[in-house]
Amino acid sequence: LYNGIHLEGKMGEVLEKLARRKPVLSLGKAIPPEKLLHLSGEGEAAYDPHIWFDVSLWQRVAEAIGQKLAAMLPDKQMEIHANTTAYVARLRELESHIHGRVAEVPQEHRILLTAHDAFGYFGRAYGFRVMGLQGISTVGEYGLGDIRRVVHTITQNRIKAVFVESSVSPRAIEAVVEGAKQRGHLVRIGGHLFSDAMGQPGTSKGTYMGMMRHNVYTIVQALK
């Protein structure tokens, strides 16, 4: 299993070739193209790969995995179908939970500012304006112009909190906080969000649902 939509870079090409000899599933192919977020300025076929931040899309992924496993293991089809159905039901409960928590944040406070632009699907699904310093990739560069742009947004909208990410250095966000302070607006770091990684194995944050619940709790508590 791999995400696809170019998240793995050139490794994606290797995995596509591997699919000729072994069972391989690109999770992104479970999502219709019209449901994907297009990356402006990156070509017609360039899409945001962070599909897991929209739980309704991740339900499609879970169903696709179940179908793939059932085809591979016909003697286990009934068990796989039952487990898939149960897991998708839990994802629907998670989706409802997120909408309920997000409703606690006033509409004018729903601006999610992070180090890199990983939360586009989250913003579209749950009604947040999303901004990132580094663009879609964690290895992207940011400059003074990017910091000024984000600081301007913070001060104009009186944003209460910004967020660091578990997989990205906090330096960029710390520079934004300092820039806002110099312009007379105090904004705090609202907490750590998981973007391109989950928590430690064996912990609740090391699961998809636990990671999503942590992110939502952190965002809501900081912005409401």
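The above is record 1. Record 2 follows with the same two-line structure.
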Amino acid sequence: MGDLINKSLKPRKYMKHGKKYRAAAEKIDKNMVYSLEEAVKMLKENKIAKFDESVEVHIKTNVDTKKGDQQVRSTVVLPHGTGKTKRVAVITSTSAEEAKLAGADIIGGEEMIDKFAKKIDFDVLVATPEMMPKLARVAKILGPKGLMPNPKTETVTKKIKEAVEALKKGRAAFKNDDSANIHQAVGKVSFDDAKLIENIKAFVEAVEKAKPAAFKGKMISNITICSTMGKGIRIKLA
């Protein structure tokens, strides 16, 4: 599945919240739909963690996940990145020097494959096409982790330089989950408002462009943003 899809961003299970969370949550009207600018401002004003929380976007879609032709899956290059530097590995028999010049963190050929069963120390794996048959033997290891290269996420390519540079700049892969929701980290609370707004708009636009041809009607039902530890804020985009 190429780029590391955000499997960590899942619907949250109920938990008992502390005083800081409850105090911040009281300032957010769960029945209100805010403008993006208002929501970003509220999110930052009501952060409760001591660490630099991620900012997440959660999109509820109307697709039927039981139908194979209604899956939403694509990539987006966030203008200002996610705030996290990805470790990019490249497996190739033809483009090692190109990968090195592009800034890949790990570069190798077929000899790397058996090591994946013991250790995975990268966030994204990019492969040139001739390596894909060889990667089949570790598909059961890479697949569940969202690390199997895939043409749809532009991680199977002959254009190694472009792929690595895009990943380093903040390209992220996304797909709907079994509940038709799409989740993506789009930056950090410490980002300027303008940068967060640009990243959020870029992500939502990419999701809209990824609308399956088989789906008819309005695909996006609602959009919520939140910080890692914060309450969700529903937004509307002009």
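Strands lie at 34-35, 54-61, 73-77, 88-91, 106-108, 124-127, 171-175, 181-188, 220-227, 233-236.
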